Amino acid sequence: MDTRLGDWAAVNNVEFAYTPTTSSWLNRIEAQFTVLRYSALDGTDHAGHQEQGSKIRRYIIWRNNHATDEHLARS
Questions:
Q1: Cα(41)–Cα(30) distance, rounded to whole angstroms?
Q2: Neighbours of 52 (CB within 10 A)
Q3: Which pLDDT tens digits describe the chain residue by residue (75 residues)?
Q4: CA 70 → CA 7, 25, 45, distances in Å?
């Protein structure tokens, strides 16, 4: 059995999320992008890509710091 992929994931702190073959992986990630859009991007007028990228990075840091919050688990 080839373990290269699993070994790489362990070294790089990557966790695989397997989805059923009859559903789209987008179903799981789409909700995250929706929250990002509403919380970090809606109603904003960024001066440029750098400012917009900074806002997105701040959201991702906040979200990762609250990853175990049960109220956010459904987001």
A1: 15
A2: 15
A3: 789 999 999 999 999 877 777 767 677 778 888 888 887 788 778 788 888 888 889 988 988 888 887 776 654
A4: 30, 22, 32
DSSP for 48-75 reads SHHHHHHHHHHHHHHHHHTTT-TTTTT-
71's tokens? 């109220």
Question: d(Cα 58, Cα 56) in Å, to the nearest integer?
Answer: 5
pTM: 0.53
